[in-house]
Write a structure and sequence with these properties.
This protein is mainly beta. 5% of the residues lie in helices and 53% in strands.
Length: 191
């Protein structure tokens, strides 16, 4: 089992860092952390299994959903090492493999503090300054999650002179992140 650790910080707002800050300059920072666990196992040089788990945290996510967990698993069958294909392996078959895998990956929103609610100066009300909501508070902002399925086969013949690879791939996206999404004005956040 292999475990990796990664801590990444990123900065934006170069005008402040370069000393040329203007009226609208700012400095922002996001943090992300990842933990990756991998497991590979081969049985009898025929059956191959692998699994992984990627745990990611990002400060751009809502405070209730900062961590995302993304598993992956796959199996492969090396048919050329089976006893019933021994005669073919000796004459013309170099590789015959069938494989299936499923995995998830996540995407965090770009920018910093996109989950924080914000207010801006609104119209005056009874000779007093008013405020109005500009951005909704998103404490439960989820990771965009892609689930990918891959079915494949590899065949190599005649000492590597002829090789075929077949792959069928499907991808499904859940909790799609969208920017500038229009909401009804009845919510108070309409565009």
């Amino acid at each position: 089992m292999v475990c990796l650790f990664r801590l990444v910080g990123s900065y934006s707002g170069t005008a402040v860092l370069e000393g040329s800050a203007g009226m609208n300059s700012s400095e922002a920072e996001t943090r992300s952390v990842s933990f990756i666990g991998l497991l590979n196992y081969t049985l009898l040089d025929r059956y191959v299994m692998h699994a992984s788990l990627n745990a990611e945290g990002n400060s751009a996510m809502g405070r209730n959903k900062r961590m995302g967990y993304f598993p992956a698993a796959g199996i492969a069958w090396n048919l050329q090492n089976e006893p019933f294909l021994e005669a073919a392996r000796d004459r013309w078959l170099d590789e015959a493999k069938i494989r299936i895998s499923i995995g998830q990956s996540g995407r965090a929103p770009s920018g910093t503090s996109v989950y924080l609610g914000a207010y801006i100066k609104g119209d005056n009300y009874m000779n007093m300054a008013g405020t109005k909501p500009e951005r909704m508070q998103l404490d439960d902002l989820h990771w965009e999650t892609s689930t990918e399925y891959n079915y494949g086969a590899d065949v190599m013949l005649f000492g590597g002179r002829l090789k075929f690879t077949f792959d069928y791939y499907q991808r499904y996206v859940k909790d799609l992140l969208q920017s500038n999404y229009g909401l009804p004005s009845s919510t108070g956040f309409g565009s």
